[in-house]
Amino acid sequence: MSLEATPLYQSLQADNERRAAANRAQGSNELGKDEFMRLLVTQLENQDPLEPTDNTEFIAQLAQFSSLEGITNLNKTVEQFAVSLQSTQALQASTLVGRQVQVLTNFTELKEGDSVKGTIELSASSPDVFVAVYSGDGEYIGDISLGGREAGDIAFEWDGLDTEGEPFPSGVYQFRAFASIDGQHEAVDLYLGRSVTSVALNAGERGEIMLNISGMDQAVPLRNVKVVN
């Protein structure tokens, strides 16, 4: 199936056409290239034969018209490119439904026989980085020591096993990431894997692609996804 035939593309195309119609209605009082040409022709038809329009002025007006037409064509090309780009992003986002993506959160679910993957966003180098693990009720379970790390994104994985190698029960667990900076342990941003339940187009404050995540009350912008597991 081609991109243009997908429901996502058609929905996005229809939405952009509605926006374009609204913009045309709002800008109906603006001077377009057709109006500009009619004014120029009218000026030539009604000019004084004894004092015709100066060649320099006429050429300047033609140059203005050419620039206007070029800008109009460029705007159309950019609009078409934007629609195509959004459609591609929407199609890609739809493939995330049912998969896990890492988003900014402190909670995630441990499934039987599986592990928990996450990423720490470290703004500065640290000699000691670790992740504290808690039960869903907030009971401390243990640490995931990551040692000294340079600034950047740090991937980690919790196997869901206790100190004796026995698996913890399935369920929701809490995680907190800390890094030693200037001699003190500070909390740092943590991204955990969560399942995508659905995708919303032209949503949010920016009219962008939003992901509905299991266990989270608010949708997450696609641009805020750190990693796709």
Automatic annotation (TrEMBL):
Residues 112-180 form the FlgD/Vpr Ig-like domain. Keywords: Bacterial flagellum biogenesis, Cell projection, Cilium, Flagellum. Residues 89-226 form the FlgD Tudor-like domain. It comes from Marinospirillum alkalitolerans. Belongs to the FlgD family. Required for flagellar hook formation. May act as a scaffolding protein. InterPro entries: FlgD (IPR005648), FlgD/Vpr_Ig-like (IPR025965), FLgD_Tudor (IPR025963). This is Basal-body rod modification protein FlgD. The keyword DNA-binding does not apply.
